[in-house]
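Comment thread on ticket #2218

A.B. wrote:
> Attaching the input chain for the structure job we discussed in standup.
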Amino acid sequence: MSRPRLVAKLWVSMALRMGDLAGTPGAVLRKGDADSGGVLVVLRGREGLCVLSRITDPDGEMAWIRATGGAPVDQVAADAYVARQVRSDPDLWVLEFDAPHLRPPFEARIV
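C.D. wrote:
> Ran it. Output below, let me know if you need it in another format.
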């Protein structure tokens, strides 16, 4: 059985607040469904960008994958990935953080 999950809007607010506290400012690029929307996080680093996608692991726990791969990508590649995902999931939230080392400002288990 999966654990209860925060509604998307509340989770987004928490992530943005954590970014502010960590000195890693963030912004909502796209609002999704307030209750059950998925989340993509764009990390803007010194060497490029990385897009993280929130998933649920087989144990029902929240985790993240580097959706654009292990290496940083350019703006065009990140934008293309986000656009494809938004086309297939119109309820999707998209956040962006200035993250020089491509690490999210919130607790994230990356698989």
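A.B. wrote:
> Thanks. Noting for the ticket: The mean pLDDT is 93.
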